Amino acid sequence: xxxxxxMLNELKRMLNDVLVARSKGATYxxxxxxxxxxxxxxxxxxxxxxxxxxxxxxxxxxxxxxxHGGALGEIEPSNAEAAA
Length: 84
What we know:
Blueprint: H1 3-23, H2 28-47, H3 53-68, H4 79-83
Helix pairs in contact: 1-2, 1-3
């Protein structure tokens, strides 16, 4: 496995950990610290030219979807809305 893949996998692991911790009700200081580590890691990936901003955004979106489901969902209209 190449270095970029390993680093992106580590980022995925960190993101997954913080998203799961948030879902389980982790304390604010713990979440804040974890977000700081992730932000710093992502900045290092950008500064070193290892990853691009769109790549990192895709990784974040993918992990959020895995933990919390899709951002959008279909909602069925109620009977009153359908009649209007």
